[in-house]
Write a structure and sequence with these properties.
Layout: E1 5-7, H1 32-35, E2 39-41, E3 48-56, H2 61-71, E4 77-83, E5 88-94, H3 100-109, E6 113-116, H4 121-156, H5 164-185, H6 187-199, H7 205-224, H8 236-260, H9 263-269, E7 274-278, E8 284-288, E9 297-300, E10 309-314, E11 317-320, H10 322-325, E12 331-333, E13 338-339, E14 344-345, E15 350-356, H11 362-375, H12 379-407, H13 411-424, H14 428-448, E16 450-452, H15 456-461, E17 466-469, E18 481-487, H16 493-504, H17 510-518, E19 527-533, E20 537-542, E21 545-550, H18 552-555, E22 570-576, E23 579-587, H19 592-603, E24 607-611, H20 616-626, E25 630-632, H21 637-649, E26 654-658, H22 664-669, E27 672-676, E28 689-691, H23 698-732, H24 738-757
Parallel strand pairs: 1-8, 17-24, 17-26, 24-25, 26-27, 27-28
Antiparallel strand pairs: 2-3, 3-5, 3-6, 4-5, 7-8, 7-9, 9-15, 10-13, 10-15, 11-12, 11-14, 16-28, 18-23, 19-20, 20-21, 21-22, 22-23
Length: 761
């Protein structure tokens, strides 16, 4: 018997799902329910929002400047950062002063299209633009070959062999065939240049359009009036060849940028637009993923992605969670197993119950982190952007000066030199050198299970000489077990465990998880107020009094009173109204890959230290096994911070590795920092990098990849500098024909993109 399937009609879709390309359609997103799909609230009043969007139509750093300049003057826009390489933008705005449709309108007026980053429509638009770009390229290529067919005889003929009428016919034919190149293939250049004039800004398309128009006007004048003011030289062959080379370079560059910065798009494409919801009567209806609610039952077929975080309630399957957890092998999922939004169902159809939707899912948090990284501009990129911002005006002034100078002696050479200067001097390679490499590497690292939160940290990683580890949950496994319990005479071990487990319920620390896992009763203590003291323990106010659960120092105990306990073990103490009632002896094991990781880091000539809030004897036990000499125990977060400051005063560049929550201030202060993704919620990780699966073996690899990235960046910057140093003087002296200048311009950016793409493998 077939199961009835109902499809919700399109008119019932949310505005976000039916977004078109018009700026006016953004008005549908001017409600908090809609803009929260692609925005994160950053204050308690729900007025300050951080939105991540995709901008289509950009192809150089100057385009990004135009968008930023269109957004920043708007009242209510606090910050606007645009990355031309990834095509992503971050906008921080005040909802009480401006709405998404208003700042989106500014982007459209600048000549570009904007899409919410969480919407897949921008990918459809990108494919459409790529198809159009390919057609423009093919038309330019066909016309170029035809024009060359007419131009070659005029070059090859010996004087007197070709009559003036025949030469004129060849030039007329070339003019006619060049028209489709001007009217169709050059369309995007002229459109962008007109927008530049309208907005009183400048992008790379302005000098390109000027160069094309100068060549076409001069060649047209020579064709119609060979003895006129502009002379008899025609440049149709150079013009069509230049346009063909430029379009070829941009098309390849467009494809390579998708590969370079594609990790985020790959992740976004995982989320289905429509899902199968199972109704109480057993019927199935297709609904947009945006209409999912907690408690819904969904059917997920083999080959589909899980659309929400939830629990398997019918069937079993294997899931691919590689991009979300770093686990490369398929994970078995049976009844009651947890599944993650964005992971793939590999083998069998299953039913799941939805527990988290939208921005609350792990998938959404990872996407948000990657979006932030895709708009981040490291120091080298900002420096290159500052140079490129003024570069284009210098180019136009230089071309004008060269043209005026040569016009006194040779009109033809003046035109060739001025056009060559306009075309060949391109700041794109300089602006792309750093972000292209870093985006390529961040995509590669994401596939390895490492999220990059701050691009600048890739450069910082190459400078470190000291690695400082936290111990619990970092060098040791998350699974901690309670070996023994000591209590006073007024309480039993079971009662002490119930109290400790009740206090630990909302904590993410590995020790807290040990109490929760060890408690085998449903009994609990009602908590009125709970405070987690970073690096110390938990303070709970209850009807039975005030309880402290934590370290010896946090509980205010004298260490001499506990000489009978094993010194080398992790100890957690329980106090009630400042009276000791219990102590717990914890057993922790060192992570298997810790030995390999520490050995590899020492092989990179790095100093290794451990900073821990645990007893020194417990820290020493772990350090001895890992052959780490420099250790400090019983450190409060303030102690850790002071030690990092002292190391930095000794000229140390410190990489801090911790759990991402208790070590937040230290992670933020270190030269570079890594949080292990299993230690804290992704949204709370105050680090430069997050290793999703918590594998220590990835740390040496991350450092090596950072060094490889900086090597590629230096190559790109050297290439950009040498290209301009060599080509600009040649163009100024009139030694570069327009077609060769166009080829050089296309190759300059293409080299940077292709070189950066090597990092993705």
């Amino acid at each position: 018997m077939s199961i009835p399937i109902k499809v919700i009609p399109k008119q019932n879709l949310s505005p976000k799902s039916s977004l078109s390309l018009e700026a006016s359609d953004w008005k549908a997103l001017d409600t908090i329910d809609e803009w929260s799909h692609f925005s994160q609230n950053t204050d308690k009043d729900h007025t300050r929002w951080e939105s991540h969007i995709v901008i289509e139509g950009m192809h150089c750093a100057a385009c990004a400047f135009k968008v930023e300049n269109a957004l920043k003057p708007l009242s209510g826009v606090i910050e606007a950062t645009v990355n031309a390489t990834s095509g992503h933008a971050k906008i921080i705005w005040q909802s009480n002063l401006i709405k998404p449709s208003q700042w989106a309108s500014g982007i459209y007026k600048a000549g570009y299209q904007a899409f919410p980053a969480s919407d897949l429509l921008h990918q459809d638009e990108r494919k459409k633009n790529q198809r159009q770009a390919l057609w423009r390229l093919l038309v330019a290529g066909f016309c170029m070959m035809q024009v060359m067919m007419f131009s070659v005889p005029t070059y090859m003929a010996i004087p007197g062999e070709m009559t003036s009428n025949m030469k004129g016919l060849m030039e007329w034919a070339s003019w006619v065939i060049t028209l489709p190149v001007i009217l169709f293939s050059c369309g995007p250049f002229f459109k962008s240049a007109l927008n530049d004039l309208r907005t009183k800004q400048i992008s790379m398309d302005m000098p390109v359009s000027l160069g094309i128009l100068i060549m076409f006007i001069v060649s047209t004048a020579a064709t119609f009036d060979p003895y006129g003011l502009l002379g008899k030289e025609v440049y149709f062959d150079s013009l069509t060849m230049f346009v063909f080379f430029l379009l070829t370079g941009r098309w390849i560059e467009l494809k390579m940028r998708d590969k370079t910065a594609g990790a985020l798009d790959v992740l976004m494409r995982r989320m289905p637009r429509m899902v199968n919801r199972v109704n109480p009567d057993g019927s199935i209806e297709k609904i947009p993923v945006t209409l999912l609610q907690i408690g819904d039952t969904l059917e997920v077929k083999a080959g589909e992605a899980f659309p929400a975080d939830g629990e398997i309630i019918l069937g079993s399957t294997n899931a691919d969670e590689a991009l979300l957890t770093g686990e490369s092998a398929a994970v078995r999922k049976s009844i009651h197993a947890q599944v993650i939004a964005g992971s793939f169902n590999l083998t069998n159809p299953v039913h799941m119950r939805v527990e988290l939707v939208g921005q609350e899912t792990r998938y959404a948090k990872i996407v948000h982190l990657m979006e932030k990284a895709s708009t981040d501009k490291p120091r080298l990129a900002l420096m290159a952007d500052r140079i490129a911002k003024h570069f284009l005006w210098i180019v136009i002034l230089l071309a004008l000066s060269v043209g005026i100078y040569f016009w006194q002696f040779d009109h033809a050479k003046a035109i060739v030199a001025a056009v060559a200067v306009l075309i060949v001097t391109c700041p794109c390679a300089l602006s792309l050198a750093t972000p292209a490499a870093m985006l390529s590497m961040s995509g590669f690292l994401a596939r390895q299970g490492i999220l990059v939160q701050k691009m600048q940290a890739l450069e910082a990683l190459t400078q470190i000489n000291t690695v400082v580890f936290d111990k619990t949950g970092t060098l040791t496994n998350d699974q901690i077990f309670i070996e023994k319990i000591f209590t006073n005479k007024k309480i039993t071990q079971k009662e002490a465990l119930v109290i400790a487990a009740s206090i630990s319920t909302s904590s993410l620390h590995p020790v807290s998880k040990a109490f929760i896992n060890a408690s085998d009763t449903d009994l609990s203590l009602k908590i009125e107020k709970l405070e987690e003291v970073s690096g110390g323990g938990l303070l709970a106010k209850t009807s039975l009094g005030v309880f402290k659960l934590g370290s010896l120092t946090f509980c205010g105990l004298n260490g001499n009173e506990f000489d009978h306990l094993k010194e080398e073990q992790l100890q957690v103490h329980l106090m009630q109204d400042d009276y000791w009632i219990a102590s717990f002896m914890m057993t922790e094991s060192i992570k298997e890959d810790a030995f390999q990781s520490i050995a590899a880091l020492k092989g990179q000539h790095l100093n290794i230290e451990i900073l821990s809030g645990d007893k020194l004897s417990s820290v020493k036990r772990v350090a001895d096994q890992l052959t780490i000499q420099n250790i400090k125990g019983q450190c409060s977060p303030e102690d850790k911070l002071r030690h990092i400051q002292w190391l930095q005063s000794q000229q140390s560049k410190v990489l801090m590795v911790g759990d991402g929550l208790n070590d937040g201030p230290v992670l933020a202060f270190a030269h570079a920092s890594i949080a292990l993704g299993q230690g804290a919620p992704l949204s709370q990780a105050q680090s430069d990098f997050i290793i999703l699966k918590g594998e220590l073996r990835l740390i040496p690899k991350l450092i090596e990849e950072a060094k490889r990235t900086m090597k590629i960046i230096k190559q790109n910057l050297l290439w950009a500098a040498l290209y301009n140093l060599i080509c600009i003087p040649l163009a100024v002296m009139g030694f570069l024909p327009a077609w060769l200048a166009g080829l050089g311009m296309a190759l300059s950016s293409l080299f940077v993109i292709l070189n950066a793409a090597r990092l993705a493998f």
